[in-house]
Amino acid sequence: MVNPALIRTFKETLLGREPNTMMIRSPYSNRLLKPFIWRDYETRIQKALVMHQLLLYCNRKNQRYKCPPMKPIDYCYIQPEHIRQVNHLLCDTFWPGIDISDSLLTPDYTVVATYGKLVIGVALMTPIGYITYICVSPYWRRYKIATFMLYHLLQACPDKDITLHVSATNNAMLLYNQFGFKPEEYIIGFYSKYMPEGTEESKNAFLLRLRR
């Protein structure tokens, strides 16, 4: 007989898990964190609209079929069930070998954006106010997802300067400028040990700071 736990694990590997609706306790601050930072029911993503229309079309001959309602974009603190998808997203966006499992120790300074069971964005920061990663899946960009995630991180450290490094050719510079980040240093070859050969993104970086 097949172990039910293995079946459940395989299913979760394919489909992910349902969003967690329980309060979680932060190992770092011992605070109880809400299951959702925000549930955005207003933003309508083009890809999601296409999926919705496709479901309606495929079931057009089934008079009893009721198309499930459009899902919100959920913003929540990072949880163990997010790690695999987040690592995959970060490795695809930046460079191979990224593992952010240790962010589970400081969930207060994280935000994960999901659509249903799919992780579509993530932003991570250390307790001292250094933003390590912020990215959104290519198909889900231009919907202000990164804007909200960055705003949330800034609220998590209201009394500290916020710093980050960004590639000199990264379009995210525009977002950081909107929030008041200013370049403090230009570092030649900062990403040389991370980015593989042939990467189009510049390996030089700006150190940006938002002064409080």
UniProtKB/TrEMBL annotation:
Keyword Cytoplasm assigned: no
Annotated GO MF terms: acyltransferase activity, transferring groups other than amino-acyl groups
PROSITE patterns, per the entry: GNAT
Listed SUPFAM superfamilies: Acyl-CoA N-acyltransferases (Nat)
Pfam families: Acetyltransf_10
Record's keyword terms, sorted: Membrane, Transmembrane, Transmembrane helix
Segments passing through the bilayer: 118-140
Domain N-acetyltransferase: 73-212
CDD domains listed in its UniProt record: NAT_SF
Gene3D superfamilies (alphabetical): 3.40.630.30
Domain of life from the UniProt record: Eukaryota
Protein name: N-acetyltransferase domain-containing protein
